[in-house]
Amino acid sequence: MNPIRSISSILLIAAWSSASAETMRFEDAAGILGASCVKEIDANCRGVSLDPGRLKDCLLRNQDSLSAQCKTDYVRAFDAIQKRVAARSAVVKICERDAVKLCGGPQKQGGQTLECILTATRGVSARCNQAIGEAGYR
Amino acid sequence: MRLGKKSRRGIGSFIVLLIGFMAPLSSAQAQANATPEDWVNKLVGLETAPDLEVAALRQQALERVKSKADGVPLQRPPVAMQLLKLPRLAVEIQFDEDSSVIRPESYRTLGRIADTLYDPALLPYKFLIVGRTAATGKREFNLTLSQRRADAIRGALVTTFKISPKRLQGIGLGEEQLLDAAHPTAPINQRFELATVGKAL
């Protein structure tokens, strides 16, 4: 990993950690994994595709051969992806009451509920707002 | 598809074409410069779900290859004309040579596809990932490889980013759906499509 990428990766992780509670975009999390561990994946996990089970296990099994950068970043990247997934799936449930109040009930499809709540200028509960923020929808 | 050496041709470089409504196809570079919002905008706008049977389409492509019909790539019509009318967007994905293993260099792109599919405007929709290749090597091999690669993209989106498997289907069309039919061996033909195909109920 070249120095510029290392610095960018550190800054991105620092910004993400210090920002409210917004979870990291999938693009950034997966990008960190790919950029930090390309050599290690080629050397130790050839034939293993991006997969939170198999690829993570492979990197874990080969801890001793990983660069310090990869060792740190693969854990953070998979963790960030998992947190984003959890935050996104939590929004609809947490905002269910808001959906009833502001949108006439939870819609059949999550996207419709979300779009309705995201366009509401007033009346969204603090808890729902927080969930939206954590999921990165605002 | 039998690709050349890594040093000459790069690794198995593919393009995912996220289909945008009647949008002209742009280069991989233009796609790389596009913002996440651009991706979403190119995928919205499906008004009527197409009459699309994936199993039938797969069979249609297989039969054409086995019968050796339309043998000359330069005169080969797309096997699935209906896909051309759907919302789409092109994105490059790299694979190991002759393999369905996605290169780490393309993880970021996969992540962006996931971000796109989670956008509230696209959450109600389902998509078809269509694998394609350039007209180099054997047609049947290309058909099989493109299917495996489409399945690999789907697999990563489902397992890593938890996109609902009900929203994604994969199909490989090999070299039966050339993007640049005037240049059948051009790398731009090594691509996938991800088409907005209807509402995910």
Model description:
The complex is a heterodimer of chains A (138) and B (201). Chain A has 138 residues and is mostly helical. Chain A contains 7 helices and no strands. Chain A folds into 2 domains: 3-85, no CATH class; 95-135, no CATH class. In chain A, 71% of the residues lie in helices and 0% in strands. In chain A, helix 1 packs across helix 2, helix 4 packs across helix 5 (96-103) and helix 4 (68-94) runs antiparallel to helix 7. With 201 residues, chain B is an alpha/beta fold. Chain B contains 6 helices and 5 strands. Chain B has helices at residues 6-9, 28-33, 36-43, 54-66, 107-117, 139-159; strands at 12-19, 88-95, 125-131, 168-172, 191-199. The longest helix of chain B has 21 residues, at 139-159. The N and C termini of chain B lie far apart (35 Å). At the A-B interface, helix 2, helix 4 and helix 6 of A face helix 5 and helix 6 of B.
